[in-house]
Structures are given as structure tokens and as C-alpha cells.
TrEMBL record:
Top-level taxon of the source organism: Bacteria
PANTHER family: GANGLIOSIDE INDUCED DIFFERENTIATION ASSOCIATED PROTEIN 2-RELATED (PTHR11106), MACRO DOMAIN-CONTAINING PROTEIN (PTHR11106:SF27)
Ranges of residues in domain Macro: 1-168
SUPFAM superfamilies documented for this protein: Macro domain-like
Database matches in InterPro entries: Macro_dom, Macro_dom-like
Family annotation (CDD domains): Macro_OAADPr_deacetylase
PROSITE patterns attached to this UniProt entry: MACRO
Name this polypeptide is given: O-acetyl-ADP-ribose deacetylase
GO MF, any single term: O-acetyl-ADP-ribose deacetylase activity
């Protein structure tokens, strides 16, 4: 299966790129962002300082430093403001832009955290549906790539798996 759910910390994954759910400064933070910077070591922050930040829905690539992953694709999800402020489109853009960078670089494997579903407050089921659909559409458009949806807990994994199952039933 080119698209599947795994459970655990994204920092442990041996993939060409892990995606970071960053903020627009790209200078680190809590949650998965903090975990990635801790595991990657100080070289990552040094490289991020040269990137000039990142707008919501866009993505930028760096090295992976001390991570098992060869690279990090930093993206900035939307802050949830009730659902009528373009949040869905910005979240879809995060997944799409990260997939496009990965494809442009010839990467063969990429792992996503559940972008915006922590501190940024995006409802998890709605976010999982957007993630599954956007990645599926990008996989159709491009060459073979292994895509992992990384859940940080078993309940979160169940939400992501349900979104994948719903999508497969539609086809
Ligand atoms: N591996 C995989 N998933 C994780 C990990 C991990 N090690 N740690 C947390 N998660 P969040 P956001 C899950 O808050 O909502 C940062 O401070 C977590 O359970 O990390 O996009 C940034 O600097 C949740 O499901 O990201 C920004 O300021 C998901 O990752 C802000 O938080 C996303 O939660 C971004 O907020």
C-alpha cells in the first residue's frame, strides 16, 4: 500500500522526508516541531534561520541532520478559527505542497504528522479526511511514493485509518 497509517513518534521513522508541522517563523516550537528539532540537533535550526519563514499552506525543505530521515519538509498548517476562514484549503495545501516538493526532489518515501490537529486546534476527523484525499490525489498525479500518516497515539491512528477506509470505499 503506498499510503498507510503508522503509530509512534515521527522522529523514529526511516524515510526520505518527515514533514514538520511548524509555525511561520520556522524557528521551532512545541509538539511535533519541538520533537523534530530535538532529534535533529542544532544544525536544523541553523538551516531554518536562513529560510526566512514560511506562509501557512506552503512548505520548505531542509536536511534531516541527526534524524534517521534524510530530510525535513517544514509546512505551516492553519490555526482553526471555526472552519469558515479557509482552514480546509490551507490544510490541503500543506499536504499538496509537501508532496510536490518530495516529488520534485525524487524522494521515494515521506511521513506526515497530523498537521494542525494539536496546538492549532483543527478537528481531527475533518483533518484526516483532508489529508487522505489530498495525498491520494497527489499520488495519482505522480510516480510511485510511499506515504506514511504518522499518528502519535492509537486513537489518532484509528481516526486516520477510518479516513483511508472511507476513501477506499468511494473508489
Ligand atoms: N510524532 C508524531 N506526531 C506527533 C509528535 C511526534 N513526535 N508529537 C506530537 N504529534 P502539533 P500543530 C502530533 O501541536 O497543531 C508547534 O509549537 C500531535 O499529537 O505538534 O500543527 C509549532 O511550532 C498532533 O496530532 O502541531 C506551531 O507553533 C499533531 O502532531 C504549532 O505547534 C500536530 O500537533 C503547530 O500546531
Amino acid at each position: 500500500m503506498p499510503l498507510r497509517v503508522v503509530t509512534g513518534s515521527i522522529t523514529d521513522l526511516d524515510v526520505d522526508a518527515v514533514v514538520n508541522a511548524a509555525n511561520s517563523t520556522l524557528l521551532g516550537g512545541g509538539g511535533v516541531d519541538g520533537a523534530i528539532h530535538r532529534a535533529a540537533g542544532p544544525g536544523l535550526l541553523t538551516e531554518c534561520r536562513g529560510l526566512g519563514g514560511c506562509l501557512p499552506g506552503q512548505a520548505k525543505l531542509t536536511g534531516g541532520y541527526d534524524l534517521k530521515a534524510r530530510s525535513v519538509i517544514h509546512t505551516v498548517g492553519p490555526v482553526w478559527r471555526g472552519g469558515n476562514r479557509g482552514e480546509d484549503a490551507v490544510l490541503a495545501s500543506c499536504y499538496r505542497e509537501a508532496m510536490r516538493i518530495a516529488r520534485a526532489r525524487g524522494l521515494r518515501s515521506i511521513a506526515f504528522p497530523a498537521i494542525s490537529t494539536g496546538v492549532y486546534g483543527f478537528p481531527k476527523t475533518r483533518a484526516a479526511r483532508i489529508a487522505a484525499r489530498t495525498i491520494r490525489d497527489e499520488l495519482k498525479a505522480g510516480e510511485e511514493m510511499e506515504v506514511l500518516l504518522c499518528a502519535f497515539s492509537a486513537p489518532d491512528a484509528a481516526i486516520l485509518q477510518a479516513a483511508l477506509d472511507d476513501l477506499n470505499e468511494e473508489n
